[in-house]
């Protein structure tokens, strides 16, 4: 009888395919975790755009004006000033308000949507821009990511025409200037 030579003994442990599957699983798990952390920390991306958000309308607005009043008869001193306040209803009957801080030369818009982080209001900087569109640009910019100095595009829908308009927005200090469409200018602050 011939004896067979002894076979080498393999150490017990995982096979090569099992190790490869384990490594691939760990890599996929780490990438998924990094994506979740990136989404949470850096904020969601997107182009802003068309969202169904019910407008919020404040209950009152106070307008203060100062007008000279004539001096009483016989008094040769200069005219004095008086202040008045009033509440102005919007065309829909609800009162609307604006927020102080509009850049000089722009027209502040009624606040239609709630504040978004730093962005509480908008104003228009050209005669072809409407306040309804400016407020939608404010919402689209705020929802497109975190505040930053780098210019970024947003898309907002004009409530007057229904057209989706691309605007390029750039932040400088606490004011964001958005331009685009047919000479539209929107300030967000």
Key words describing this protein structure:
single chain; 189 residues; alpha+beta; 6-stranded antiparallel β-sheet; 2 helices; 24% strand
Give a summary of the structure in a few sentences.
The protein is of the alpha+beta class. It has helices at residues 16-42, 131-143; strands at 63-69, 80-86, 107-108, 122-124, 152-157, 164-172, 175-180, 184-188.
Give an overview in words.
It contains two helices and eight strands. The chain has 189 residues and is an alpha+beta fold. The strands form two sheets. Strands 3-4-8-7-6-5 form a six-stranded antiparallel beta sheet, with helices on one face. The longest helix is centred in the N-terminal third of the chain and has 27 residues, at 16-42.
Kindly report the average pLDDT value.
73
SS elements, strand count: 8
Q: Specify the biggest β-sheet.
A: 6 strands, antiparallel
The arrangement of helices and strands along the chain is: HEEEEHEEEE
Please give the radius of gyration in angstroms. 31 Å
State the strand order across the main sheet. Answer: 3-4-8-7-6-5
State the end-to-end distance: 97 Å
Strand content: 15-25%
The oligomeric state is single chain
Structural class by helix and strand composition: alpha+beta
| Rough outline | rod-shaped
Counting DSSP H or I runs of 4 or more residues, the number of helices is 2
Share in helix: 10-25%
Q: Any low-confidence stretches, pLDDT <50, length ≥5?
A: 44-72, 74-96
Layout of helices and strands, plus pairs?
Elements: H1 16-42, E1 63-69, E2 80-86, E3 107-108, E4 122-124, H2 131-143, E5 152-157, E6 164-172, E7 175-180, E8 184-188
Antiparallel strand pairs: 1-2, 3-4, 4-8, 5-6, 6-7, 7-8
């Amino acid at each position: 009888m011939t004896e067979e030579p002894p076979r080498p003994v393999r150490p017990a442990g995982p096979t090569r395919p099992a190790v490869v599957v384990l490594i691939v699983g760990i890599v996929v798990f780490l990438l998924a975790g990094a994506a979740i952390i990136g989404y949470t920390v850096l904020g969601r991306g997107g182009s802003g755009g068309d969202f169904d958000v019910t407008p919020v309308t404040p209950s009152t607005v106070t307008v203060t004006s100062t007008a000279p009043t004539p001096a009483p008869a016989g008094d040769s001193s200069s005219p004095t000033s008086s202040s008045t306040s009033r509440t102005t209803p919007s065309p829909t009957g609800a009162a609307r308000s604006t927020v102080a801080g509009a850049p000089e030369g722009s027209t502040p818009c009624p606040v239609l949507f709630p504040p978004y982080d730093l962005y509480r209001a908008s104003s228009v900087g050209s005669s072809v821009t409407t306040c309804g569109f400016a407020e939608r640009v404010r919402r689209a910019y705020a929802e497109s990511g975190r505040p930053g100095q780098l210019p970024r595009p947003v898309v907002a829908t004009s409530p007057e025409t229904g057209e989706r308009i691309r605007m390029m927005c750039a932040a400088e200090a606490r004011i964001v200037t958005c331009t685009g469409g047919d000479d539209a200018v929107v300030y967000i602050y």
